[in-house]
Amino acid sequence: MDKLQAMHVFQAVVDEGGFAAAARVLDMSPAGVTRYVSELESDVGARLLQRTTRKVSLTEAGEAYLARVRHILSDVEDARAVAQAHTMEVAGVLRITAAPLLASHLLAPAIAGFRRLHPRVTFDISVEAGGVGSVSDYDIRLLSAPSDFNGNMIARPIITTVGVLCASPEYLKEHGTPKTPDELQHHDCLQFKHPDRRSGVVLLTNPEADGLTVEVPVRPVCQINYVDTLLRAVLDGAGITAQPMELAAPYLNSGKLVRVLAPWTTAQLTLYAALPSRKFLPARTQAFLDYLTQRTRNSVHTAMLGALHVQRP
């Protein structure tokens, strides 16, 4: 027996003055209403209603029980309203976890702008290199993965971008700008070190030439297994490297980095927001996802247009 539903039915029988009237209000059959009340009386061990052919009235036990039932149902409705307010109101604590790279270059820069729009939202951020903890412990987990990623989790794609080759203006001023993929062989290249990737080779794709792909041998002057360190090195003029566009975009837009060999790209990646559930998404979570998505896409779009403008006057 659904005890709360039985209480609700019992209250309706009293308020409507009978089983048939309560059945109409509740959109139930009279037999169903009768069954709920009978089961409730069996559960409490007392007769709650006095039934006659003309009317239904409360017994003494029924009067005492109804007073408590009204309080219980009122508290349940209040609890529901409180929960809905948390879902509908853009306020409260937003718990987010992300790897150091995403936390530094995507999450942190978005906080000030978002809080100007929604000052009643505060952040509780956990930066975790190993992705420790369950997705259910957070409102959002930010992660970057290949576009064919099929993890066993609820994940909303924020943006799908590609890797792009970039260098600092200082490096290009000193060493020149490569005009073709083959010219990379004569430049200082920085590579991300990964056990599944070959060293000394860059795989490039031209989306404007039917996806033409070429494999270019390069001279890696430095191999690094941490993308943030790789980014720092290229910003300081150490050479040319590939970076995910969503991470490189702010530096391309500010002029601290310059994209080279556009429109050639490297691997395609998608930034995901993993969520604990598809249902009852709090308004603060939805608002931040919308803000982060729009902010990231605008930054990437500006960087893509800027690169084309610089290389194709």
Notes on the protein architecture:
This protein folds into 2 domains: 3-88, Winged helix-like DNA-binding domain superfamily/Winged helix DNA-binding domain (Arc Repressor Mutant, subunit A); 92-311, D-Maltodextrin-Binding Protein, domain 2 (3-Layer(aba) Sandwich), CATH 3.40.190. Helix 1 packs across helix 2 (19-26), helix 1 (3-16) crosses helix 4 (60-88) and helix 2 crosses helix 3. With 313 residues, it is an alpha/beta fold. The protein has helices spanning 3-16, 19-26, 30-44, 60-88, 100-117, 169-175, 227-235, 245-254, 283-311, and strands at 49-51, 56-58, 92-98, 121-127, 140-146, 154-167, 188-192, 201-206, 212-217, 219-224, 241-244, 258-259, 268-275. It is built from 9 helices and 13 strands. The protein is rod-shaped and about 100 Å long. It is 44% helix and 25% strand. Strands 3, 4, 5, 6, 11, 12 and 13 form a 7-stranded mixed β-sheet that branches. A two-stranded antiparallel sheet has the order 1-2. The mean pLDDT is 86.
Number of H/I helices: 9
- Parts with pLDDT < 50 across at least 5 consecutive residues: none
So, CATH architecture of the largest domain?
3-Layer(aba) Sandwich
Count structural domains.
2
CA radius of gyration = 31 Å
CATH structural fold name of the largest domain: D-Maltodextrin-Binding Protein, domain 2
Helix content: 40-55%
Q: Can you tell me the overall shape?
A: rod-shaped
Mean pLDDT: 86
* Strand elements, count: 13
Level-1 CATH class name of the largest domain: Alpha Beta
GO molecular function: DNA-binding transcription factor activity; sequence-specific DNA binding
Protein name: LysR family transcriptional regulator
GO biological process, one term: DNA-templated transcription
Pfam families: HTH_1, LysR_substrate
